[in-house]
Amino acid sequence: MQDTLYTIAVDGAEVVNEAQGWSFSWTGFWDKVIEYGTSIAIALAVLVIGMMIVKRISKVVSKLLQKKEYDASLQGFLVSMVSITLRILVVLTALSQLGIEMTSFIAIIGAAGLAIGMAFSGTLGNFAGGIMILIFRPYKVGDYIVAQDVEGSVLDIQIFNTILLTLDQKKVILPNGPVANGTITNITHQKTRRVDFTVGIAYGDNYDDAKAILQKFVDEDDKIIKEGENFIGLVSLGDSSVNLTVRVWCTLENYWDVYFKMNERIYKEFGQAGLNIPFPQMDVHVHNAK
Fold this sequence. Notes:
By secondary structure, the chain is an alpha+beta fold.
């Protein structure tokens, strides 16, 4: 009991001595106020000025993208990405002025980003593919393309997918990752297109007559570009036919009209001119065995 009372008395005396030794210093107080106030003022200045600079940079980036005539969806996305990234940097810089250690915070963000990236690797691949397509523009909305063994008109180019409409009105959604990494055939990239035909005539038919008739078809079709590098010639000697090739040029919108009309005239008028279009056939000889 006496030991306990002695301990309490000693501790109490130490507390009293510490209280008597403590004194308030206005000089130290104002030094701390100036120190922390200066840090806060610098942080606020960095934050305000930094945000103003970010806003100006975003406008400059937007004008550059508009000048380059990039896709509208890509313009908005890139401007947002630049703005968000710069704003995060400004906030981190302002916090560092307050003495907050950013190393651990940045490490946590990096680890979280790595985990998310691994979890959504396929989605990120499509995202990267979409960015590449929107930047380099191998095709645009309205083009007729062939990609991933699918062909159709481009309805929309999104960040993750490209949407096609096939000739039989099927909507096909292609992930941008495989599309960007694969072969893309843009059929409507140019204003003109070549129409190719291969026409077979029977052995023994007059080749000059066949070529003259084909030339007449080309001359009489007003949808064929006469100044184009049109060509008619013998392409091969087949097993049962002499094959002529016809290559003519037309505008994109007239491609199918020229194609179908040429085939129709060949079928109708070759026979009238005494030219035969061969077709595969087999002769069977039956021998009676004695």
